Amino acid sequence: MQLLKIKNYINGQYLEAQSEGEILNINPATNEPISIIPISSNADINQAVSAATAAFPAWKTMSHDARFRILNAIADQIESHAQQLAEAETNDTGKPLWLSKSIEIPRAASNFRFFATASMQFASESHYNPGQNINFTLRQALGVVACISPWNLPLYLFSWKIAPALAAGNCVVAKPSELSPTTAMLLGDLCTKAGLPPGVLNIVQGDGPTTGSALVSHPSIKAVSFTGGTATGKKISSILAPQFKKLSLELGGKNPCILFDDCDYEKTLNELVRLSFSNQGQICLCGSRIIIQSGIYDRLKKDFVKRVEQIKIGDPLDPDTRMGSVISEQHKQKVLSYIELARQEGGKILTGGTTHTPQGRCSQGHFILPTIIEGLSPSCRTNQEEIFGPVISLIPFDTMDQAIQIANESPYGLAATIWTQDLKKAHHLAEQINTGIVWINCWLVRDLRTPFGGMNQSGLGREGGWEAMKFFTESKNVCIQYS
Ligand code: NDP
Description:
Oligomer: single chain
CATH class of the largest domain: Alpha Beta
Shape: globular
Distance between the termini: 77 Å
Structural class: alpha/beta
CATH architecture of the largest domain: 3-Layer(aba) Sandwich
Strand order of the largest sheet: 15-18-19-14-13-20-21
Strand content: 15-25%
Number of helices: 15
Bound molecules: NADPH dihydro-nicotinamide-adenine-dinucleotide phosphate
Number of strands: 23
Radius of gyration: 23 Å
Largest sheet: 7 strands, mixed
Mean pLDDT: 97
């Protein structure tokens, strides 16, 4: 079979990279190669940054209406190519095709549509001192910015960064993960069709240590918006901090889900399955520490295990499949090593705990059964480190104070969910839990206007709505004295 050759998209054209080598891109559900990715070098980054620099003066001064029309047209292009994009996403990542089609690709279109309108509505402040002076704030585009995203929600997260950066008037050099290059490459053509001027968005392909590192280190890059692991975030911070560049970091999590005796039991059970194992547990917002009040612990455990054992796992192209493969052989080994660690730490595997081998075309794929563990101390490594796979841990509690203590016993602080019908209790917890996002009686309900991001080791800064528009602009105060 002829392998697809992944190319860079620079200055509105697909170009072969002046590469420092190649990577074979494997479909993790079948373990078959599907494409060849170049490891773009410093020379490619220089070329992309030069194209972006040349495009910046015209893009930053383009009328809001014209910019709105182009970003909106990109959303239209994504929608009209949804099937092709969804298939590419599923082949790269092993996630169910229905998930790519019904949630992820539509969300990528929404990201462009949302920030298209943001570019029309973004306003800045003025501060008036009667009879003396008036201050007004300019919010100016930064210049050329870098956007780096991970493999778990590829086009969804890629566009979540690119769209606000462009809406605010910046030009962009963006790098997807080497594990999910295809939709990023396809996006280039869709931008051209939508009328995006050459050089405004440039997409470079490659790995983290070579391509990603060259991109964030480039002296002309004014800001970096990064989503990925905490360890990578630390490396990027250490490069950017001495240069005083703007940095937004969306990093890992170890999200607590607190289930009280008085929750709406059936609804909570249904959502618990979804928040634990959606996208094979590879969403930064998935729950991983399920903290359950003792009055419902035994009943919930039994019902939860029963539901999870009914999840259909296998070929991502089968519409009945609820869980596909994890992203790679290497990631499978990492997740399995945490299951082994949980055993060593005294955990009891209630269900799962092993790989899964489907029949047919996916028999060589990287599947792991959804795994539920109990009996671990809240402070053990399994309950403290991010696994980022289909593995969750059940932890019992008696009092609200205990629940808060367990939830906050983590170096991370991304997202929490609280399940109770007592809103007084829910409000109290929402105040006390140290996460950037709290969902009460729901999970992954998103309003793109809200601040999105985490505390502590889960990141720095917020994405979404005006937060993103502010990140991608520099504010400048102008004071006029007239007294
Ligand atoms: P990584 O940190 O390994 O990679 C993220 C991106 O950074 C990839 O494009 C990667 O390239 C690139 N990269 C790696 N090393 C460097 C470097 N030295 N300099 C510049 N770029 C680099 O994360 P994963 O892709 O494994 O993603 C999973 C992680 O992302 C999890 O920790 C998850 O929690 C987190 N995440 C956080 C979210 C949030 O909103 N807080 C949302 C989604 C995921 P390459 O892959 O090619 O090596």
